[in-house]
Design goal:
By secondary structure, the protein is α/β, with parallel strands linked by helices. The chain has a single domain, classed as Metal-dependent hydrolases (TIM Barrel, Alpha-Beta Barrel). It contains nine helices and eleven strands. Helix 5 runs parallel beside helix 6 and helix 6 runs parallel beside helix 8. The longest helix is centred in the middle third of the chain and has 18 residues. The radius of gyration is 18 Å and the shape is globular. It binds zinc ion (2 copies). The site of one zinc ion has 5 residues, from loops.
């Protein structure tokens, strides 16, 4: 069983037409492919879905679903960007787009009382470093705590199915500011995992850092995967593809890590519901 519930086409910051990803997924033997453009945001940017494309996008998706019926199951999701005070409520987006499911992610971190946002994603470590310095006075513990606090707020206040790249905060860190083994860091992660368990949210094992060579492991990595197994939190493997060849990017590695952590089942959204299958 091969599934990928996290894909960006050129309707957000991916580079190709949705059909290109579908053809690629079919040729790789995928059973299910989910599209998750970045949710619309009320400010100018080059990554999120543009509200005026909604009708076009939804009718294209319906047509593709019909065209590829019997070859691959297509599902429609969205990667919701959680920025308190700025973004639209997840549930209203889910209803408005008639989504099958949603991913909740934090890419921009807010320091309470400050206007500027810390961009933890993107290709440049320089952006991460300067945000850390300017918004958090260079205090990495404060900055990382703000990230996990925002993830926790998202879990407490929004309705969504999957948590996106849970520890992406480590990407540009590259063990320069923290290793991930510190007690303070592990406590932050444990707190978030408890909340995930409580809310019944799925954790994706996101492979993008590996094939983009920005991380030596998945988001989350082996240590957190072990905790996820112990807490019996549902898991899926996603590539967060932005180009068609990335549809199965580093899937083999992720599957090995999942199995090494003792996880025996993955979940997928099929026939309008969540179901698990052995991996
Ligand atoms: Zn993301
Ligand atoms: Zn994504």
């Amino acid at each position: 069983m091969l599934t990928n519930h996290h894909t960006h086409s050129y309707y957000s910051d991916g580079n190709s037409h949705p059909e290109e990803y579908i053809r690629q997924a079919i040729s790789l033997g995928f059973d299910l492919l989910g599209f998750t453009e970045h949710s619309p945001l009320p400010f100018d940017n080059n990554f999120s879905f543009k509200e005026e494309k909604k009708e076009e996008y939804l009718s294209l998706f319906a047509a593709l679903k019909a065209r590829y019926k019997g070859q691959i199951e297509l599902v429609l999701g969205m990667e919701m960007d959680y920025i308190p005070g700025i973004m639209e409520d997840f549930e209203s987006l889910t209803t408005g787009f008639g989504l099958d499911y949603s991913i909740g992610s934090v890419h921009l971190v807010r320091n309470s009382g400050k206007e500027d946002l810390w961009f933890i994603d993107g290709p440049l470590a320089l952006t991460y470093d300067s945000g850390l310095k300017e918004i958090f006075g260079g205090d990495i513990r404060k900055a990382v705590a703000a990230y996990y606090r925002q993830v926790n707020d998202m879990l407490e206040t929004q309705r969504f199915d999957i948590i996106g790249h849970i520890d992406k905060i480590k990407m540009h860190n590259r063990r320069r500011y923290f290793t991930g083994d510190e007690a303070w860091y592990r406590d932050l992660v444990s707190g978030t995992l408890q909340l995930i368990k409580e809310k019944g949210v799925i954790v994706e094992v996101n492979t993008r850092g590996i094939y983009k060579k920005r991380s030596d492991t998945t988001y989350p990595g082996p240590g957190i995967l072990k905790q996820i197994m112990l807490l019996n939190i549902p898991v899926m493997i996603n590539s967060d593809a932005h180009h068609p060849p990335e549809v199965d990017g580093a899937f083999d590695q992720a599957l090995s890590l999942v199995k090494e952590a003792g996880i025996r089942e993955l979940v997928r959204f099929s026939n309008h519901q969540w179901e698990s299958y052995p991996c």
